[in-house]
Amino acid sequence: MIDASSWRAPAELGRLERRFWIIGGAGIVLSLLGALLDQAQAVQSYLVAWLLWTGVAFGSFAVMTLHHLSRGGWGLMVRRVLESAAKTLPLLAILFIPVLLGLPHIYRWADPEAVAASAKLQEKTHYLNVPFFTARFVAYFVVLGGLTWLICSRSLRQDRTGEPRLARRMQNFAGPGLGIYVVISTLAAVDWIMSLDPLWYSTLFGIYFVGGHGVAAFAFVIPVALWLSRREPMSRALTQRHFHDYGKLLFAFVMLWAYFAVSQLLIIWSGNLAEEITWYVERIQGGWKIVGIVIAVLHFFLPFLLLLSRDLKRNAGRLAIVATLLLVMRWVDLYWQVGPAFHHDGFALHWLDLTTVVGLGGLWLATVFNLLGRHALIPVNDPNLEEALPGE
Amino acid sequence: MDPGRRVGLYGLVAEFDNSDQLLRAAKGSRADGYRLVDAFTPYPIEEVSEALGHHHSKLPLIVLIGGILGALGGFFLQYWVSVIEYPLNIGGRPLNSWVSFIPVTFECTVLVASLSAVLGMLALNGLPRPYHPLFNEERFALASRDRYFLCIKKLDPAFDREGTRKFLEGFDPIGVYEVEN
């Protein structure tokens, strides 16, 4: 058995956490000031910020279940990071309250006047109405939060007792958990983003949302792993080989995301039906077109070409730069999906878009680091740990 | 013996029971100044090729060039057909309907890249090669079963029939054999 006390987080993690509390607090205060000036803009900006950080948490949950299913050595080194991110789901649920309060500013189906004026919208309100939307929202977070608790509590019990059967138990939850996560994400994508344009639909949209979560999870995990790998105790555990693995996985998710993005565009382009194509017509013209090109280049082509290189994947510092770029691009991608619903006249960016994403990100990251500091940084009694740790 | 064959010693080959021993011998031989060293294992062992300094091959570059040529070829084949040679208005879409070109472009990229990978690998390895001196050693057949072999070639400047044999024996192999050309 490995001594858990030697794997406690370094004291610097506390300082990092405080720094993010300050950044987050400042961002939130500015955003609140902005909300006094322009309530509609504030909740619209806040939705994109919330979607970004929730995507990281959802993705971390999914990658955590993938790790339990595959039992690869790569996952053991960051399992605590993924767990800490997934454990923020209850917090993210609470942080959705501003969106719930501002629903009519965001969703046309939640605006009684717009609904009264459109017969088509009235048909949609059987599904898209405020009570049912809220109930679905609660259900998603109860189920995913519950699964996180079922898995993470066993992971911590494994640290204390080392019972061999716990690894199997976590795997048993992870399998159905991953499936449930995909179903929930699909429904959530419809609720949170697709319903911004209540008459538009795309059957690929849910899985496109899921692909983005995969990118977001690794874009978040790699910089955190880099930070940890430069300090005791994780400098003893994280090696070039692990970063090589994270690089490969990030590469895979970038390609998966691009595959879904192109598939959706290709199907809708080929069909060219009025109800489907409108979504793209707004997004591939004018200012939004430039954003779309930036996404194609910086969310796919550049990371794709860079991540082809084995040397880059084995260089943790450079890999973290690519990962950070992709995290920023996750936000741009979400903004490109959500923004045109509010700005039909072409591209527009408000300062609140930036303060909300920084503010919420600061709070979220501070919470993750707080949770990360509470336990050993690696699952010290996992049966596969010895194999994953670098040899003497 | 057929007349075209080179004669004399090809090199010394040591047989090991496990990959750790092989790895140690591979690292040791590099450290000792040997350069014409090759390892043979029943399955790929990444660390061995690193230990032997085999990491940087030209193959990735060949595959990349193949992929780029495939992408350009695939895209411009469609562009030429749809825009220049036989323009057709399909459902009011632009002639350069680039979205519809993506699948074929992608497939051509993969096709040419993988063909360059296979052919490039064969070319860089000097394959096909029906004869190799190592096959003269009967025990070498075990390299595809459960034994690990390290070969130091005679052409290596640091090679010395007796000295190299002693050096290899220092790694505790099952045996060290002389291989004839």
Relative strand content of chain B: 5-15%
**For this entry, what is the oligomeric state of its chains?**
heterodimer
Low-confidence stretches of chain B: none
| Global shape of chain A | globular
Query: Termini of chain A, distance in Å?
Result: 17 Å
Mean pLDDT level of chain B: 84
Number of strands of chain B: 4
Query: What order do the SSEs of chain A take from the amino end to the carboxyl end, as H and E?
Result: HHHHHHHHHHHHHHHHHH
Structure description:
The complex is a heterodimer of chains A (392) and B (181). With 392 residues, chain A is mostly helical. Chain A has one domain (4-388). In chain A, 77% of the residues lie in helices and 0% in strands. Chain A is built from 18 helices and no strands. Chain B has a four-stranded antiparallel sheet, with helices on one face. The mean pLDDT of chain B is 84. The longest helix of chain B has 27 residues, at 59-85. Chain B is elongated. Chain B is of the alpha+beta class and 181 residues long. Chain B has helices spanning 19-31, 46-51, 59-85, 98-124, 161-169; strands spanning 9-16, 37-40, 148-153, 175-180. Chain B is 45% helix and 13% strand. Chain B folds into two domains: 9-57 and 133-180, Alpha-Beta Plaits (2-Layer Sandwich), CATH 3.30.70; 59-124, no CATH class. Chain A binds chain B through residues 262, 265-266, 269-270, 272, 308, 310, and chain B through 60, 64, 91-93, 97, 99-100, 102-103.
Provide tags for this entry.
heterodimer; A: 392 residues; mainly alpha; 18 helices; 77% helix; globular; B: 181 residues; 2 domains; 13% strand
Write the layout of secondary structure elements.
The complex is a heterodimer of chains A (392) and B (181).
Chain A: H1 12-37, H2 39-70, H3 73-86, H4 89-94, H5 97-101, H6 103-106, H7 112-117, H8 119-124, H9 130-161, H10 165-192, H11 205-229, H12 240-271, H13 274-283, H14 286-308, H15 310-313, H16 316-338, H17 351-372, H18 385-388
Helix pairs in contact in A: 1-2, 1-17, 2-3, 2-10, 2-11, 2-16, 2-17, 3-11, 3-17, 9-10, 10-11, 11-12, 11-16, 12-14, 14-16
Chain B: E1 9-16, H1 19-31, E2 37-40, H2 46-51, H3 59-85, H4 98-124, E3 148-153, H5 161-169, E4 175-180
Antiparallel strand pairs in B: 1-3, 1-4, 2-3
Helix pairs in contact in B: 3-4
